[in-house]
Specification:
Bound molecules: 2-amino-2-deoxy-6-O-phosphono-alpha-D-glucopyranose
Low-confidence stretches: none
Order of helices and strands: EHEHEEHEHEEHEHEHE
Distance between the termini: 17 Å
Structural class: alpha/beta
Keywords: Carbohydrate metabolism, Hydrolase, Isomerase
GO molecular function, one term: glucosamine-6-phosphate deaminase activity
Protein name: Glucosamine-6-phosphate deaminase
Organism: Ligilactobacillus agilis DSM 20509
Shape: globular
Number of helices: 7
CATH class: Alpha Beta
Catalytic activity: alpha-D-glucosamine 6-phosphate + H2O = beta-D-fructose 6-phosphate + NH4(+)
Largest sheet: 7 strands, parallel
Mean pLDDT: 96
Number of strands: 10
CATH topology: Rossmann fold
CATH architecture: 3-Layer(aba) Sandwich
Number of domains: 1
Strand order of the largest sheet: 1-10-9-6-2-3-5
Helix content: 25-40%
């Protein structure tokens, strides 16, 4: 239970409508002086990025920090999250500075430290999140410590399978990633989580109605004071209160 904090849940027809709602949340954050945007990858935020690209919003004086990156993939690798961000947002709407973990860093501990320093120097005003079918956020898989900062994480089999659609073969999906920890994510002043499609319905039910449970990492968001959840009808299907 969330101790009285209300999570705003917006149910939309589909992911296109979801992207439009999300764009409003971004516009509002910018109007309120947001300087640092926390960004996410995956299929879910694609419509949001389309809306942001089409909008008049200006990110040229803002900083972005991303949640995660696959260990072993460089920024020029089409499957990397660095590449994804350039394709979906940065090429069209550049920021003053955009940070992602470096999947090719030789010294992993130094890379984690570097990213934590970036986050300390750039507190996130609005963090965009998707959600894994198993309730993961970033790459914080079930059982992740709820107070962790950036770290190297092993992907679960379910995440490897879910993300295999972006790779030629399932064997090509990296087994590790650098991810902002749940503690880092919870530092954001405001959080916007999106979920579209029936595969996310169970995770969304746990997120909105379940108890806080480290086995469903997203449920910790119930303890955050400013969370908006945008879901389509399919992802909202198991919610009891609509
Ligand atoms: N690390 C990412 C998450 O940030 C993302 O939210 C999730 C869902 O992805 P999708 O939006 O493609 O369903 O999967 C990946 O594992």
């Amino acid at each position: 239970m969330n101790g009285g904090i209300i999570m705003r849940v917006i149910i939309v027809e589909d992911k296109v409508a979801g992207g439009k709602e999300a764009c409003k949340v971004f516009a509002n954050a910018l109007a309120n002086g947001a300087k640092v945007l926390g960004l996410a990858t995956g299929g879910t935020p694609e419509t949001t990025y389309q809306e942001l690209v089409a909008s008049k919003l200006d990110f040229s004086k803002l900083v972005s920090v991303n949640l995660d990156e696959y260990v072993g993939l460089g920024a020029d690798d089409p499957q990397s999250y660095n590449y994804y961000m350039k394709q979906h947002l940065f090429n069209q709407k550049p920021f003053a500075k955009s940070y992602l973990p470096n999947g090719l860093a030789e010294d992993e501990a130094a890379e984690i430290e570097r990213y934590n320093q970036i986050l300390a120097a750039n507190p996130v005003d609005l963090q965009l999140l998707g959600i894994g079918e198993n309730g993961h956020i970033g790459f914080n898989e079930p059982g992740s410590p709820l107070d962790a900062k950036t770290r190297k994480v092993a992907l679960t089999e379910s995440t490897i399978k879910a993300n295999a659609r972006y790779f030629e073969r399932e064997e090509d999906v990296p087994r590790y990633a650098y991810s902002m920890g749940i503690g880092s994510i919870m530092q954001a002043k405001e959080i916007l989580l999106e979920a579209f499609g029936a595969k996310k319905a169970q995770a969304v039910k746990a997120l909105v109605e379940g108890p806080v449970d480290a086995n469903v990492p997203a449920t910790i968001l119930q303890k955050h004071p400013n969370v908006t959840v945008i879901v389509d009808k399919q992802a909202a299907a198991l919610l009891t209160k609509k």
